Amino acid sequence: MTAVKHSAEARGPARLIGVDWGTSSFRAYLMDAGGKVLDRRESADGILAVQDFDGTLERHCGAWADAHRDASILLAGMIGSRQGWIEAPYCPCPAGAEEIAARLTRHVTARGRTVAFVPGLSWSSPSGADDVMRGEETQILGVAGKGRQVMVLPGSHSKWVEVFDGRILRFATFLTGEFFAAMSKHTILGRLMAGEAHDPKAFAAGIAASAEPGGLLHHLFRVRTGGLFGRWPADSLSSLLSGIAIGHEIRGARDFFGADRVLVVGGAALAARYAEALGSLGLAAEIGAPDAAARGLTRLAARSVP
Amino acid sequence: MTAVKHSAEARGPARLIGVDWGTSSFRAYLMDAGGKVLDRRESADGILAVQDFDGTLERHCGAWADAHRDASILLAGMIGSRQGWIEAPYCPCPAGAEEIAARLTRHVTARGRTVAFVPGLSWSSPSGADDVMRGEETQILGVAGKGRQVMVLPGSHSKWVEVFDGRILRFATFLTGEFFAAMSKHTILGRLMAGEAHDPKAFAAGIAASAEPGGLLHHLFRVRTGGLFGRWPADSLSSLLSGIAIGHEIRGARDFFGADRVLVVGGAALAARYAEALGSLGLAAEIGAPDAAARGLTRLAARSVP
Description:
The structure is a homodimer. By secondary structure, chain A is an alpha/beta fold.
């Protein structure tokens, strides 16, 4: 489902400078009050790559800010974490744009510009387990619509989210991407692997394996014997492992959220992979429109009190 | 010398030199025909640590062999793999001591001694997945009894096995140990961990978590947030992860084999950990007697044709 702009939404500042600033990437947008992207900057200046956050922001967005003196500047993502520029405390779920906008953390830069950091979200399960996200909440707001939505934002730490009428009710993190990388690079499974090209047949076999008895720790061993016994060529084993991992993620999340329809929010290649996996496990998949973070920042700006 | 043994069992050679030679360890036993261990040698001369297999065997067991010229010499474990000394082809399951003894691979050493390599086992599931073991089959034979037994041999690659009247019907590998190591050392989970001391409370919490919805990839994130939110001290996080991993292994294996009673075969510390986990998941656990490999080698020697 794509974002539907509601007529009831508050109107934001004439111009908005929104930055989705994560661990390994920096994406900035100059937008009008309706969320239309007028200009954009993308770079690899994630928080692990740069130390001078103030200077980096100035370098990428200073000209926009000079040209639009009344523009709000909103920063979302890991830039608002302890490892970032200013720590913006987590906002507990359930939370929608109002609650999140009410908890922006403001800071004045060396050049005297006021910037606002978007808080991440936290959620504690009834059994006492905590979960957190930072950055994804902004993308979620960008694709949130009416009624109930279950979304996945795939990645190193995939986030599955239940949203109702634009409010994020609860969410769960799955360590799928990190798991895949650690198992590929640091266990016996990697020894027979060659390359990471996508093999749809091996990927589908991995997803099918995830539904068999024994669980993930057992299914993993197929990547070993699949190579040893020549059932799969070396350059298909990575896809087999990926299918096993994503299959288990989806099955676990379905169990958790009880969804039969899932909105996939992320980069095109990974989103297509997830849609493929969801379909083969009998779930309807829809791929979210791009620039979700930009739209989410617009919604937050429209609700923030300067 | 009169052999003391099962009256129904075939009679083996007067003396047996049995070696359980794995990836990282070398364990040799001098035994009488009844399986009584008369002498033993243990070292870290696993197949990854030594290149000269012939010389290593001679160094540890040459004096025994000189003193007992009629002794059979049996080698089990990864020494019989492609990475070892002589590759002994897998024996397909179901298989008992007869089938395994019939497939020993013989070789004459530089000093003119005949040594026999015990084959590993393979099993292919009805769905077409393969599984293999090498070395564990000998330990299993050492603890096999009458009727149906479900066993676990915990480790880097835990083996779960279904045995009936001494025959190994089928088995399944779980990559639990390697998974634990890779996740501890090569993902974000390790960042907050300090030490690997056993905390029974955190271990039990991990096992309990494994029964909640979401699956392993989600439960892993508790190790992150458990540290972030101060629910567990840094030196308990390793036990929490261990409980999550072992809990998932046991739940997967229970699903696979349908067992309510499990025989744990392995080193004392790890066996105790598994017994604890089995108990808290409602399964009866029994810990196997030590020197299982030595007894298994005796059973094989009793059935082998020189």
